[in-house]
Write a structure and sequence with these properties.
Length: 197
């Protein structure tokens, strides 16, 4: 029953935001781009509880700490608790986590334009926090710098992220997949990028 309601909401959201499809499906960054250089002053916020945020003095994580000297699979999505993100996108990475590790991937990261507390609650709810690292891009600065931001106000979401995935080695993009519309799930899933590594 809950999955039926989620699929109805997903269908409604898809019909509402299909108008964004013509907007753009490509980011300013591309294969070969350096993520750290593309967004030099940007930090992300690791998913955590409010108390963990307070005890860390609301620390953020610079991109160099996430990508330098590492092999990372990162995927961005419109938002926590949304239909396609919860039912398809995150699970496509969670079910493949052992295969990613088997290919030498140091970390699999999910990022969305949400605060780190929402990302933490969502990661716990969908039982993916142990497999995937979740980061908030609370002000959208990471996605804006990469030209992966989109206005989803028509769906009452406001500024958000396109749905995308990338394979990044030492900060350099080796593979980049961006969906034509945030409601689509064709090229940014875990199965797809696993076959591209």
């Amino acid at each position: 029953m809950a999955s039926s309601a989620m699929m109805k909401r997903t269908g409604l959201m898809k019909s509402m935001i299909n108008g964004f499809q013509a907007s753009r499906a490509y980011a300013s960054v591309a294969v070969g781009s350096d993520l750290i250089s593309a967004a030099p002053d940007v930090s992300l916020q690791k998913a955590r509880t409010w108390d963990e945020g307070v005890s860390s003095k609301f620390a953020t994580t610079p991109l160099k700490d996430i990508f330098k000297d590492k092999k990372v699979v990162i995927f961005g999505l419109p938002g926590a608790y949304t239909g396609v993100c919860s039912a398809q996108h995150v699970p496509s990475y969670k079910k493949n986590i052992d295969k990613f590790k088997g290919k030498g991937i140091d970390s699999v990261i999910c990022v969305a334009v949400n605060d780190p507390y929402v990302m933490n609650g969502w990661a716990e709810k969908i039982e993916a926090k142990e497999a995937i690292e979740f980061y908030g891009d609370f002000d959208g600065s990471f996605h804006k710098k990469l030209d992966l931001a989109i206005d989803l106000s028509a769906a009452l979401l406001g500024p958000r992220s396109h749905r995308w995935s990338a394979y990044v080695v030492d900060g350099k993009i080796k593979v980049l997949n961006v969906e034509k519309a945030p409601s689509e799930f064709e090229v940014s899933g875990g199965d797809v990028i696993l076959g591209q590594i």
